[in-house]
Amino acid sequence: MGFYATTIKTNIPSLLSMPDLSSRAHTIQIVFGLISVCLIVLILIVQPSIERDSKTGLEKIQHSGTLRVLTLNSASTYYQDNNGSNGLEYELSTLFSDYIGVKAEFIIISQFADLYPELLFGSGDIIASGLSKNESEFSSAVAYGPRYFESSNQVLYHKKHVTRPRKMEDLTEGLLHVVSGTSQTKLLVKLREQYPRLIWREVDDAASEELIERVDSGEVPYLLADSHQIALHRRFFPELRIAFELGEPRQLRWAYNRSLDTSLDIALERFFKQIDKDGRLEQLIHRHYSHVADFNYSDIQTFTGHIEKRLPKYETLFRKEAKAVGVDWRLIAAIGYQESLWNPRAKSPTGVRGLMMLTRPTAKQMKVTNRLDPAESIRGGARYFARVLERTSSKIIEPDRTWFALASYNVGFGHVQDARKITEKNGGNPNRWIDVKKSLPLLARKKWYKQTKYGYARGSEPVKYVGNIRKYYDYLIGLDLKLNKESSLPKLLKDGETLPLAPSL
Prior knowledge:
Layout: H1 23-52, H2 57-64, E1 66-71, E2 79-81, E3 84-86, H3 88-99, E4 103-108, H4 115-120, E5 126-131, E6 142-144, E7 149-158, E8 176-179, H5 183-192, E9 200-203, H6 208-217, E10 222-226, H7 227-234, E11 240-257, H8 263-277, H9 280-294, H10 300-309, H11 311-325, H12 329-340, H13 360-365, H14 374-391, H15 400-411, H16 413-425, H17 433-439, H18 446-449, H19 460-487
Parallel strand pairs: 1-4, 1-5, 8-9, 8-10
Antiparallel strand pairs: 2-3, 5-11, 6-11, 7-10, 7-11
């Protein structure tokens, strides 16, 4: 309850006058008497409210039953995939909400610059979006939790579009871009004291992921962004390179409103200490980032080597299961190669495993009991793809219908439908892959995903996924044609020797 200072003017009736007091003294006495009565009434009104609000900040969150988490819709924070919600910040926040006995509610903020104001306005309890101390003009008004990850500031460029910048003096003429309101903008302001000619452009209508795509397309010459965000997306754009790093590494933390009450501070300190000690923090970071460092595109030479050494072990299984669901076996084999390089023991930090890299829910749907068994994995993968293909609109003619199904197999049916709607809105044909594949990357741009039903998606990934599988599929078709041609010629075989299922080249 607010208390407001006011000037009180009171006219006292003569009936209440005291004969042995001066008129002025009497007036003062009456005024103080009225003030005392008002204070007593206020105490009676306010005291129950004070008692009700005597809970600590943590207790208020627990009493509400919900931890309101402010975050961004991105690959490094929170997003939706085939298995539902995902992202490092999503998983950490869910763990913390479980730790304090409540449910996590994720509130998506459209741009980084709005995170701190929304927290101060009371829209959420914490910000979980890769923040660091003293990065914002609002930093002095908030508190920060323990560090849980480290990220550096990297300058990104495309090796074929621009010349590699090698020193700060090369970043002139506004060629360097940065997301407005981030720690990188504050870093550049500080660096300009040392490098007066340093000029950059702040972008407030796009996130780092979208700017990374613009570097690949040549729209943005240079970009300053967090290393973990660059790592997540650079694997889809192999021509991108890191020029150099600026400043000190950032220690990523959560933020929450500063208060004399330290209950939330203590809870966060204990929580991060616990998950660091029991290994869950390391496990989460490994799950979301370890595969990025090891990711490489398989070139044709590597593919040929695996055809010679690995495919012969599984070709019969691919043929059998593909025939059972009415799909070309070479397509199922190409999917398997993209997923695991035909490695039956393959495992991902995210929990998918086996030759077809099935998730646990998908394996259960397809009645696969052992995902590491090649026969079961290929059968499950073939059946699941056939189901996705059947669900894909019959209005889409082949081969486009297969490409749509592959994209859905990778990123989810809902996100592909969102991309089709965007394509139609932009005047394209939602039943043509050549049009829709241009719209899929837009699902990572806030201008577009905020208009969709299923929200943010790493739209460039299914485009690369489909492109890779088409390449492997076409190559297998060519090999099969060669095999059929060679099999029609006389063969001189030694006793017990048989023709290889996949020929050596």
